Amino acid sequence: MSRLTVLAPATLVILGACNNLQQIGQEPAITPIMQSIEHNAMMTYSLPQSIDTAPPLPTTASLWTGERGSLLGDRRAIQRGDILTVVIEIDDSAQISNSSDRSRSASQDMAIPQLFGIPQYLDPSLSEGASLGNAVQLDSSSSAQGDGSVSRNEQLTLRVAATIIDVLPNGVLSIEGSQEVRVNFELRELLVTGFVRPADITRQNEITYDKIASARISYGGRGQITDMQQPRYGQQAAEILLPF
After folding, report:
1. Residue 127: which domain range?
2. Are 232 and 187 members of one domain?
3. In Å, how far from its chain's centre is CA 65?
4. Are residues 143 and 184 in the same domain?
5. Does 233 lie in the same domain as 145?
6. Looking at the 3D structure of the chain, how many domains does it have?
7. Full-model pTM
8. Would residue 116 count as lying in a domain?
């Protein structure tokens, strides 16, 4: 094994440790919003509509219009860069209990008291106490018992503003939202992505998480508390490499 092969993993470990050492005494950095995909969607426009599909221009004036900026207009998010509210209310519980019990017993006896006098002829040559009178005796028994149970209870209530980042050819909206809250030296992160139908958006410009297709919801954090809850790098590496 070459010296370079041995030093390469050690160098990666040292570089990773140095990266964490730079965060000592510092708050977790918040992701700049100018670098987010939501900001990019707001700064760029969708492809222009063709002349055939563009809405006709109004030919008469009216005090009441159905445009989005009017008092009676539909202000729900519908195009790239619009914002809507995602309501996450997860309250799931499940209980599974399984029990199995199995047993089996068997006994086999084979005796040769008389067989042309052969047992009586061979018995004197056998060890003391041995006899062919009871030639074979087999006993077997087996039993198995198993119990298993699963109990799970999850409850999460969150609200996050998401941005339409793309309008698919079939009219479905691709959304993505992120939220970061820093309290002291702990940063809580909430990420939501998925696809929604415009018809599922309520008049309050909200949509529940169960109406989001391919929903990806991530709620976690980073900071001092999260670091203390994680095993050290050496312990994680030992648990992966050790075969026992």
Report:
1. 102-149
2. yes
3. 46
4. no
5. no
6. 2
7. 0.56
8. yes
Which residues, in sequence order, are bridge partners of residue 45? none
Longest dimension (CA), the chain: 126
Structure tokens of 218? Answer: 């991530």
Give the long-range contacts of residues 131-137, CB within 8 A, separation 24 or more: 134/109, 134/110, 135/110, 135/111, 136/108, 136/109, 136/110, 137/108, 137/109, 137/110
Q: In the structure encoding, which two tokens stand for residue 155, read together?
A: 């409850």
Three-state DSSP class for 51?
Answer: coil
Q: Determine the Cα–Cα distance for residues 155 and 213; give it in Å rounded to an integer.
A: 20
Tokens in use for 132?
């062919």
Alpha carbons within 13 angstroms on the beta-carbon side of residue 241 total: 6
Q: Tell me whether residue 16 is in a domain.
A: no
| DSSP codes of every residue in 133-196 | TT-EEEEEEEEEEEEEEEEEEEEEEEEEEEEEEEE-TTSPEEEEEEEEEEETTEEEEEEEEEEE
Same domain, 169 and 85: yes
The structure tokens 């018992």 sit at: 145
Please report which confidence band the pLDDT of residue 105 belongs to, taking 50, 70 and 90 as the band edges: confident
110 or 57: which carries more pLDDT confidence? Answer: 110
pLDDT recorded at residue 83: 92
Q: In the 8-state DSSP scheme, what is residue 18? A: H
CA angle 203, 52, 60 (to 5 degrees): 65
Q: How far is CA 68 from CA 64, 73, 76, 120, in A?
A: 11, 4, 8, 111
How many whole angstroms separate alpha carbon 194 and alpha carbon 196?
Answer: 7
Both 120 and 217 in one domain: the answer is no
Most confident segment among 76-80, 84-88, 233-237: 84-88
